[in-house]
Amino acid sequence: MNHASKPASVCPVCRCDRATQYHQDQTVRLVRCASCGLKYQNPMPTLEALSALYASQEYYDGQYFPAQFAERKAMFAHRLAVLEPLTGGPGRVLEVGCGRGQFLEAALERGWKACGQEFAEETVEVLRGTVPAAELAHGVFPEECPFPDSSFDLVHLNHVLEHFFEPMEALSRVWGLLKPGGVLYCEVPRQSNLQNTLSNMLGRKDFAVHYMLEHLCYFEAASMTRALEGSGFAPLSIRIEGMGDPHRFVRGVHYTSPWTHLMALVVGGLKLQGPLGGGNLVAVARKKEAPR
Ligand SMILES: [Zn+2]
Q1: Domains in the chain, start-ordered, CATH in brackets?
Q2: How many angstroms is it from 283 CA to the middle of ligand 1?
Q3: I need a surface site. Which of 26, 77, 214, 261 has the fewest CB within 10 A?
Q4: How far is the CA of 120 from the centre of ligand 1 (A)?
Q5: What's the confidence (pLDDT) of residue 251?
Q6: What is the pLDDT of residues 165-203, one digit of tens each?
Q7: What's the rounded Cα separation, in Å, for the pair 249 and 162?
Q8: How far is the CA of 135 from the centre of ligand 1 (A)?
Q9: How far, in Å, is the centroid of ligand 1 from the Cα of 10?
Q10: pLDDT of res. 258
């Protein structure tokens, strides 16, 4: 990880040095890569600022609500059921960025050997109490990842890739951790200025999750494809999910008021996520067997 706040002179995905300003507010300034379309913070925040954020109990308590744990676990179980035909059934799975552990719980219950890495030791301590059967590690990924190469059938990155200063380094490490033919599930949020404008008009901060300090990159299908192919993966599917999908968080973390819930249902039902730029981008990819 590049630790200093630095003007990101090149795109973290394709290394193109041409970009135009896309968004600026009090928290972040985003530019859009002229080549792959990735939106990324420029300048990037400091590691110190992000470390303080991730180490705080409030960060996790503000994102994960015990009332939703059962729903989250059910969503992850459904996701695993979809992925298992690709991996040949339950095997060894690594989750980077485990939150409060509902994915690990779902994986263990389905017969997976589950491993997880979290940034902060404090978070791992919480997880040791709630999912003691999981093998857990803390530290910066990928530099401090203790798990051996070629040891996983599945790697689960759920709203994690957008947090890395260098997403290509993270994906390269994931490539190494996977067995030949192993599968990567990578989901990231999508945002747009239009979505934020609508949100502001409604006076709501929770329709659109606003640009956040810890979200360093915003992917679309083109930049995600480029990132995966550039790090040795063959994309199996890249699609938009989210608002309106019954298996997603329509009532969940991001849509907490009746108005935003209703709008999410309308947007999802009319399949407007594409033009509006909302929802999540879900990529499933397989490690290519041939060396890059
Ligand atoms: Zn780019």
Answers
A1: 19-287 (3.40.50.150)
A2: 18
A3: 26
A4: 30
A5: 38
A6: 999 999 999 999 999 999 999 999 887 767 666 666 666
A7: 19
A8: 35
A9: 8
A10: 66
CA distances from 59 to 54, 67, 190 (A): 6, 17, 20
CA of 34 to the centre of ligand 1 (A): 7
36 Cα–ligand 1 center, Å: 4
Q: What is the DSSP secondary-structure string of the chain? A: ---S-----S-TTT----EEEEEE-SS-EEEEETTT--EEESSPPPHHHHHHHHH-HHHHHTT--GGGHHHHHHHHHHHHHHHHHHHTSS-EEEEES-TTSHHHHHHHHTT-EEEEEES-HHHHHHHHHH-TTSEEEES-TTTT--SPTT-EEEEEEES-GGG-S-HHHHHHHHHHHEEEEEEEEEEEE---HHHHHHHHHTT-STTTT---TT--EE--HHHHHHHHHHTTEEEEEEEEE-TT-TTS-TTSTT--SHHHHHHHHHHHHTT-HHHHT-SEEEEEEEE-SS--
Rounded distance from Cα 35 to ligand 1 centre (Å): 5
Q: How far is the CA of 40 from the centre of ligand 1 (A)?
A: 9
From the CA of 11, how far away is ligand 1's center (Å)?
Answer: 5
Report, as an integer, the average pLDDT of 156-170: 95
**Confidence bin at 9 (pLDDT 50/70/90):** confident
Q: What is the pLDDT of residues 38-78, one digit of tens each?
A: 999 999 999 899 888 887 777 777 677 777 788 889 889 99
249-280 pLDDT, tens digit per residue, is: 433 444 556 666 677 677 777 777 677 766 78
Distance 227 CA to ligand 1 centre (A): 9
Query: What's the CA-to-centroid distance between 64 and ligand 1, angstroms?
Result: 32
